[in-house]
Amino acid sequence: MFENNSVKYVPSVPKIVDPEPITCIIEPSEEEGGLYLGNLEAANNIDLLRKLKIRAVLTASQETAVKYQEHVVHFHEIIMAHDKADYDIIQHFEQAYEFIDRHRKYTNVFVHCFAGISRSASMVTAYLMKKYNLSFEKALWNVKSKRRQVHPNVGFIRQLQKYETVLKNQAISNAPSRIQYQQQQFPQYGFVQQQTQQPIQQSILTPFIQQSVLQPWNQSQRYDELVQYY
């Protein structure tokens, strides 16, 4: 199961240190495939992909000409992303999420760019945010705790923070209303959504109609109550 730990600071590895070609961010399980993050070197290493049983690859780069034979990688998608602070990477988060989540049901998934530090790391971070309902900081910490050289550029950081707000707003808008919750939890009580505009006569008579359901109808008593009410 994916860990949702408290936020801790994990420093980036200096750029002079060569990053590992590939890193496992989420271990494979019986329910879902694993999620791997890495660079172009790993993407071109067919033996490594076979060893890790990776059959789906997401390329998050416009300068890498990676191609696979279908018997090696069954599913390959390319997102033409640029590693620039002013690049609109948030536009690709949903596409990346759909690819990763769809193929993790059947196989291990590998996400890469040129170095596996900024573009692909941002997309993996966005995936964790949506998949596991994590804040930006917790999702990025989880990625950096596995692959310490991860370092999205400042523009991507701002967009990931914006994406956190987008996900929160979606969660609020998709939350069931009070009436919907009551209907789901207590169907035996027959909760009904009230109309925003009710006829005046209906709103006046409603208390007496509701009482009549619980008590035998006494016509003279109800007549007296109606006269007193008016």
Automatic annotation (TrEMBL):
<dbReference type="GO" id="GO:0005737">
    <property type="term" value="C:cytoplasm"/>
</dbReference>
<dbReference type="GO" id="GO:0043409">
    <property type="term" value="P:negative regulation of MAPK cascade"/>
</dbReference>
<feature type="domain" description="Tyrosine specific protein phosphatases">
    <location>
        <begin position="87"/>
        <end position="147"/>
    </location>
</feature>
<dbReference type="InterPro" id="IPR016130">
    <property type="entry name" value="Tyr_Pase_AS"/>
</dbReference>
<dbReference type="GO" id="GO:0008330">
    <property type="term" value="F:protein tyrosine/threonine phosphatase activity"/>
</dbReference>
<dbReference type="GO" id="GO:0017017">
    <property type="term" value="F:MAP kinase tyrosine/serine/threonine phosphatase activity"/>
</dbReference>
<protein>
    <recommendedName>
        <fullName>protein-tyrosine-phosphatase</fullName>
        <ecNumber>3.1.3.48</ecNumber>
    </recommendedName>
</protein>
<feature type="domain" description="Tyrosine-protein phosphatase">
    <location>
        <begin position="27"/>
        <end position="169"/>
    </location>
</feature>
<keyword id="KW-0904">Protein phosphatase</keyword>
<dbReference type="InterPro" id="IPR000387">
    <property type="entry name" value="Tyr_Pase_dom"/>
</dbReference>
<keyword id="KW-0378">Hydrolase</keyword>
<dbReference type="GO" id="GO:0033550">
    <property type="term" value="F:MAP kinase tyrosine phosphatase activity"/>
</dbReference>
<dbReference type="InterPro" id="IPR020422">
    <property type="entry name" value="TYR_PHOSPHATASE_DUAL_dom"/>
</dbReference>
<dbReference type="InterPro" id="IPR000340">
    <property type="entry name" value="Dual-sp_phosphatase_cat-dom"/>
</dbReference>
<comment type="similarity">
    <text>Belongs to the protein-tyrosine phosphatase family. Non-receptor class dual specificity subfamily.</text>
</comment>
<dbReference type="Pfam" id="PF00782">
    <property type="entry name" value="DSPc"/>
</dbReference>
